[in-house]
Predict the 3D structure of the following.
Amino acid sequence: MKQAIVARTDVGMGTGKLAAQVAHASLSAYEDADRRTRKEWKGEGQKKVVLKGESESQLFELADVAEREGLPYAVVRDAGHTQLDPGTVTALAVGPGRDNIVDKVTGDLPLY
Amino acid sequence: MKQAIVARTDVGMGTGKLAAQVAHASLSAYEDADRRTRKEWKGEGQKKVVLKGESESQLFELADVAEREGLPYAVVRDAGHTQLDPGTVTALAVGPGRDNIVDKVTGDLPLY
């Protein structure tokens, strides 16, 4: 099992900011998963991969695919206190879920 | 309330790697918190800050302080499949907890 987190490369986030947004997405999608999935993923060491996304529209398209695949997912918007405009979409987390199902959503994206 | 995640700057993690380790630490410390704390922090928007740490020994010292303050915390070791040697300590998450208590542990560290 794994979780894939897609972070936008086109909004100019610094490293710490990006890491916080990825963590936010990860936790929110985790909370969207059922108890059994959460337990299994944690038991396997909560594998995560961080991938590059290129636009807000791409993240929403991927979220739609995740929805259709029945995967937990979460889209994160920044509160905009620093660096970004309020409401900027920054990251999408998909899973935890089976590797091959998560790959149906994010398998074509490059590693961050 | 907030959660502070301290990531090491001295082990040469790439951006995506660092984000994954921060997310791992964040989720593990979250799971270490009691239900009421988790709920309150999420209700406030799960505020997170990512800070710079400089060594493994520093992270363990800060974890000791978190323990003494009664805060949830988690130290993350990398599985070492990529980039780092297996077992390398990469990140420490402290909280969620009251801002002033979290600051007792990590208040002197620079933003990442």
About this structure: Chain A touches chain B through 28 residues (CB under 8 Å). The first helix of chain A runs from residue 15 to 32. The beta strands of chain A are 2-8, 48-53, 73-77, 89-97. The CA atoms of residues 30 and 36 of chain A lie 11 Å apart.
